[in-house]
Amino acid sequence: MQIVTTFRQMPTSKPLRDYAELKISKLEKYHQGIIEAKITFSSGKTSHNAEVTLIASGTTIRASESSSDAYSALDLVVDKLSRQLCKFQDKLKTHKAAKNAVSADELLEAVSKKKEKIKKRTGKPRIIDYLTFQMKPLFPDDAMLQLDQAGDDFLVFINAESYDVNVIFRRPDGHYGLIVPDR
Questions:
Q1: Does a structural domain hold residue 99?
Q2: Is residue 183 predicted with pLDDT exceeding 60?
Q3: 61 in Cβ contact with 92 (< 8 Å)
Q4: Fewest CB within 10 angstroms: 52, 60, 67, 159, which?
């Protein structure tokens, strides 16, 4: 976030500028899209004014306050801005939720249309997911241990004895099966 601080009718104060930058940077916790903050301090006969303009993603938010002290005027402005940013954030959330709200019937209808579209295109089942992995030569007992550790239902491996591709799988009775290619 870019912060620009201006002093009008009062001397420039580095401590006040640093304090303002610290306070304004904390407003990012309310809204991440703040691009620029313009802070203007001015002084009257009996009061100090602080005005802040925030340029955020898609909106501009302004607030100004007066107090007997520039620091307290800035604190009041930051409180006001935090409330405004919370309201803005809530509007964004409710707007997105209302925009993205879909009833269960609409969802089921969309899924069935998608399935019909896929059936019309292909007419038969097709491969929709690919998995690549490195296979190290393993003995069948080691493959069985690795299958237990992974918690999967099957494991494809290269048999260290024959250097053929084998598949070990867990059977419903708790034992293991081994698929070996026929030579």
A1: no
A2: yes
A3: no
A4: 60
